[in-house]
Design a protein that fits this description.
The structure is a single chain. The chain is α/β, with parallel strands linked by helices and 205 residues long. It has one domain: Aldolase class I (TIM Barrel, Alpha-Beta Barrel), CATH 3.20.20. The protein is built from six helices and eight strands. An eight-stranded parallel beta barrel has the order 1-2-3-4-5-6-7-8, surrounded by four helices. The model has no long low-confidence stretch (mean pLDDT 90).
Length: 205
C-alpha cells in the first residue's frame, strides 16, 4: 500500500495537493509536520490544516518535532487515523502512545535511518500499531533511498507483528525491495507528485 505524502510550509500548496488527491479519488494522505528544530524541515502546523478539506481524507500525522507528545492535542483537532512520532527526542514512548490512544487514535513510533530498532522500548511493542522507518535523512524529500533500511526491516519483523511503514525514496523498484524485506506499507512524496504511482494498483483508493 502506497500513501501520498504532503510536506509543505505553504497552506496554499497543501490545498492544491489535497485538491489533486481528490481528483485522483485518493482517500488517504500522510502529512509530515516539522518544527525546524528536530531537523531543518519546517512545515505548516496541524491547526493550519483545519482551513483545508483534510477532513475528507483518512489522515496520518507524522511528527518530525521536538517532544512529539506536546503536539498530540493539536494534531487530534483534524481527526487523523494515526499519529506517528519520532522517538529520538521523545520523552517517553509509553506516554506518547498512551496519550494518542486516549483520544481513540492509533499511535505509532518513527525512527531515523541512523536509529537502531533496538531503541524502541520492548514493553511498548504491543501497544504500538505502526513503526515508521525513514529511508532518507529526516525532513528531506527527493533524497536517494538508503538500503540500510532493508536490514532494519528484516530484524524488526522478527520481533514485531504490527505495520512497518517506510518513508522516503519510494519508487516501484524500492517498494518491491521493502515489501520483500517485510514492510507492510510505504509513503511516497516526490515520486508521487511526479506521477510515478498514477494508475498503480498498489496505491490507496
Amino acid at each position: 500500500m502506497i500513501t501520498p505524502i504532503i510536506m509543505e510550509v505553504d497552506i496554499v500548496e497543501v490545498e492544491r495537493k489535497l485538491g489533486l488527491l481528490t481528483e485522483q479519488g485518493q482517500k488517504r494522505v500522510h502529512m509530515d509536520i516539522g518544527d525546524g528544530m528536530f531537523s531543518e524541515f519546517y512545515s505548516i502546523a496541524p491547526m493550519d490544516l483545519l482551513e483545508t478539506n483534510i477532513s475528507k481524507f483518512e489522515t496520518d500525522i507524522h511528527l518530525l518535532v521536538d517532544d512529539p507528545t506536546e503536539y498530540v492535542e493539536e494534531s487530534v483537532s483534524i481527526k487523523p487515523v494515526r499519529i506517528i512520532g519520532q522517538i529520538e527526542r521523545m520523552g517517553s514512548q509509553n506516554v506518547f502512545l498512551e496519550t494518542v490512544a486516549g483520544y481513540g487514535i492509533s499511535g505509532g513510533l518513527a525512527l531515523k535511518i541512523e536509529t537502531s530498532f533496538e531503541e524502541i522500548e520492548r514493553e511498548v511493542l504491543g501497544k504500538c500499531k505502526t513503526i515508521l522507518l525513514l529511508a532518507i535523512p529526516a525532513g528531506t524529500t527527493g533524497s536517494p533511498f538508503d538500503p540500510r533500511v532493508l536490514d532494519k526491516i528484516r530484524k524488526l519483523r522478527k520481533i514485531y507483528q504490527g505495520s512497518i511503514l517506510i518513508d522516503g525514496g519510494i519508487n516501484k523498484e524500492t517498494y518491491k525491495m521493502i515489501t520483500d524485506a517485510g514492510a507492510s506499507e510505504a509513503g511516497a512524496d516526490s515520486a508521487w507528485w511526479r506521477g510515478e504511482w498514477e494508475n498503480s494498483d498498489t496505491v490507496t483508493q
